Amino acid sequence: MLKFNKNFSPDYGKVTQVTPLIRRLVAHNPSPFTFHGTGTYIVGTNKVAVIDPGPAIASHIHALEKFLETVEVSHILVTHNHVDHSPAAHPLKLVTGADIYAFDMGSQADVDNHAEEGRDQHFRSDHILKDGDMIEGDGWTLDVVHTPGHLSNHLCFGLREEKAFFTGDHVMGWSTSVVSQPDGDMKDYLSSLEKLLHRDDDIYYPTHGAPIENPQPYVKALIAHRHDREKQILAAISEGAHNIPEMVGAIYSDIPTYLHPAAASSVLSHLIHMADNGQITCDGDITKDGVFTVI
């Protein structure tokens, strides 16, 4: 059974030592999609990598730059280019001189801002990372794992020395991830979760919320949750909910209505996946306005 951990109280503006090789600074940008804020991770001791520099919030960038005066930055790494993760990368590059590393951004077409935080349209990286790459620094080694689903360009990073895994928005302990069209993809997301089951990480560090200990059972629970959601969608359609607003009303009656747009986007991603699997059909193209029936 999927159980969330919402026990997380960040000390905004302060860099916290998490482990011998990991420090964290949390931006003051709480929201329904960022929980208590974006966690920027600093990996290493004297010559460090920064993972997900965070949003364009002056207080966060100032606190990060102030701390980084005491160390040397060799790499700036970005899990994906949502506006709560990547905008601070370029100011940080200007101050530190470090290069930016990320997956190929491809098209910068925006996604539905009502369903999540929206894309950082101006983000560019100096180096393109791909699945299986390795980044070596001063006393630390990061494996690059491509995990599309939340966004097609999403990456995770595995710290070999501590068997720690930085999961960005792919796996979070406080909530499920938004898988939103047009760039989010449920089939890819489920495959990316399955991919993690072949790793032996001891702990996950999401960009939002608390670390996830004993992560393998949690990933299995996330996969089971998505399959259960598709069973709920099938049941809702069978009981007469043939469009997405009706499905959201039937399935998500326990969440605030301001989260229904995100729920609707997730349902659409599920419906596309279910149509590909031959479970449902749509009267015309599969869109948010489609009419769906069970095959």
User: What best-fitting shape do the alpha-carbon axes yield?
Assistant: elongated
How large, in whole angstroms, is the Cα Rg?
A: 19 Å
Strand content: 15-25%
Distance between the termini: 29 Å
Would you report the number of β strands?
A: 15
- The structure class reads alpha/beta
Name the helicity range.
Answer: 25-40%
CATH architecture of the largest domain: 4-Layer Sandwich
Number of helices: 6
Task: Assign the CATH topology of the largest domain.
Answer: Metallo-beta-lactamase, Chain A
Largest sheet: 7 strands, mixed
Q: List low-pLDDT spans.
A: 109-115
Q: Please identify which CATH superfamily of the largest domain we are dealing with.
A: Ribonuclease Z/Hydroxyacylglutathione hydrolase-like
Regarding CATH, which class of the largest domain?
Alpha Beta
Number of domains: 2
Round the mean pLDDT to the nearest integer and report it: 95
- Give the ordered list of helices and strands: EEEEHEHEEEEEEHEEHHHEE
Looking across the biggest beta sheet, what order are the strands in? Answer: 1-2-3-4-5-6-7
